[in-house]
Specification:
Length: 82
């Protein structure tokens, strides 16, 4: 039986997942990609997080962002990500 890590540092995620086949990663914005804030409009997704998402995609990992926010708000938070 193969063992999978329960937690890893975000900067190690790319190295771990780039060897996986047919991998899909679903991530929520609030509390996962950005910290919770009292006012959701104060949330930011750090540049380092956006860089990791881009790197995952370069290795063929399908990244899906899920949220209860409007599409306009989500796109604004992920503006540096493509």
């Amino acid at each position: 039986m193969e063992s999978h890590p329960i937690y890893m540092q975000p900067n190690l995620l790319v190295d771990y997942l780039k060897h996986q086949k047919n991998c899909y990663l679903f991530l929520d914005i609030d509390g996962t990609l950005s910290d919770f804030t009292l006012n959701p409009k104060d949330s930011i997704v750090p540049y380092s997080t956006l860089s990791i998402l881009r790197e995952l995609q370069k290795h063929g990992i399908v990244v899906a962002i899920v949220t209860g926010r409007s599409l306009v708000e989500a796109r604004s938070l992920l503006a540096g990500y493509s």
